[in-house]
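quick one, 349 residues, struct below
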Amino acid sequence: MNKKIMLTVFYTVLAAGIFAGGTKDKTETVHVKKQGEVIIVNLSPPVYSMLQTFPGLKDSVAGVNPRTFLTSNPKVLAAVNPNAKNLNSSFLNNDFSVNAESLAALEPTIILYYGEFEKKGLDNLSIPMVNMQINDMDSESLTQKWEKMIADIFKTDNGNKMEKQWKKTNEILSATLKDGKNIRGLFIFSTVGGKIMVSGNKSYGGNFLRKAGIENVAELDGFAEGAGQVEVSMEQINEWNPDIIFINSIRIGKNNTSAKMILENTDTRNWSFIKAVKDKKVFDIPQGTFSWGMPCADSPLMPLWMLTKIAPEKYSEFEFKKKIKTYYKEVYDTELEDAVIDEMLSPAK
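---
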């Protein structure tokens, strides 16, 4: 830890369903008054990426959910914070349940968690905790809310980085998407265990597609309503016949399907009849400080990356790589090497 700040929290958090949806809103008030060094245990991987945008909090994180490493690019994470490899995650068991005694041994001054399921096993700890779960399916407004929430909790300023970056992203999108073609896309949220889960109504995947000017073929009335993600069959995907497919290929679980498997027809299912496959428009979603398929501190980059796939003649990968370099400097104060950027954008193997 190299940053000592006053930790004074009097915060009211609105918690609600976010990935799964359907839960009732619940208000939780957290009172924390502690002076001295801040020691954070963070159970929510996307929130870790947000913490890395705060210079005074980067090295205040002592423990994280091991999924932080599974849902990010290790070289990017190391570039942003060389100390990331030393973070403790031993307080979580193989099933990701919390070992309260191991967590307490880290002597955290505050615990950040995401939803009641992450809080299980922590009820007997007398450590201040804040629920980072917010009922907002728009990555743009959610990342800004997370930033403000973190700034309020730790009484620190981050210069409204998310608001500024989203403004820049929206300016590029607005200038580029004029008179665009009607492109129909499918966002595959996961393929863990052989199940194809796609992003339907009120989902982050659908939100990213809309921002990039892409019609979500799975955004139908009543389809995945209130759930965000839903399992679908190959028959349904064939019927939709999307022009482009994005796959959230996070390294969790078994039997994940990559874009390469679909394009080379080595998956267990036959995708060859779909227009996106015929046109070689199937892409693995990149990972930076977190997977770009879900809200995180890299989210303003996601619709711009999509833009390079649907309109490379208007917004090229060369331009986008320059954008990434500038973005990481402005948001994380990190100089990303070209080789790291290339790896970030490379397809899953």
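The radius of gyration is 20 Å.
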